[in-house]
Amino acid sequence: MGGSGSRLPKELLAEYQANPFKERICKVFSTAPTRDSLSFEDFLDLLSVFSDTATPDIKSHYAFRIFDFDDDGTLDREDLSRLVNCLTGEGEDTRLSASEMKQLIDNILEESDIDRDGTINLSEFQHVISRSPDFVSSFKIVL
Asked: What 3-state class would DSSP assign to 72?
């Protein structure tokens, strides 16, 4: 193990801190009553899901839960807007205009909302993810 073992927690913490979804990741994996902290077991679950050995179904299930900001079991326009803002940043120079955001969300729903109910459910999300070969390799924590 040597000296590299002592760097692992710091590198992992840096990767987590840089993640724009860190609050959602904590909420999704936490078993604490307030869902604002991770136990050691929660942390191991998180590492398992973000590992290279996790199946695409497991990864897509947890990605969906992370992106479902209101925890209602669907990705609606508000969830998608928050998702885009997390990915693009909250700054004035990176934030999409209202019309750009509407167009992007319309396009996402057009491609993903199979039952045309105005939201994306887990099976629709998994269907879209199954057509994205980069998803499994990018949904991980690099140590």
From this structure: coil
DSSP letter string over 29-59?
A: H--STTS-S--HHHHHHHHHHTSTTS-HHHH
Closest CA to 43 of 15, 75, 80: 15
Go through 55-82 and write b for each residue having 16 or more CB atoms within 10 A of its CB, e for each that does not. Answer: eeeebbbbbbbbbbbeeeebbbeebbbb
Which residues are CB-contacts of 120 (< 8 A; sequence separation ≥ 6)?
A: 74, 75, 80, 108, 109, 112, 113, 128
Residue in 78, 138, 133 with CA at minimum distance from that of residue 108: 78
Question: Scanning the structure block, which residue is given the tokens 């590198």?
Answer: 11
The closest of 86, 123, 122 to 101, measured between CA atoms, is 86
pLDDT tens digit sequence for 67-106: 999 999 999 999 999 999 999 987 778 889 999 999 999 9
Q: SS3 breakdown of the chain: % helix, strand, coil, rounded to 5?
A: 60, 0, 40
What's this model's pTM, rounded to 2 decimal places? 0.86
Task: Look at residues 77, 93, 96, 85 and name the one whose alpha carbon lies nearest to residue 24.
Answer: 85
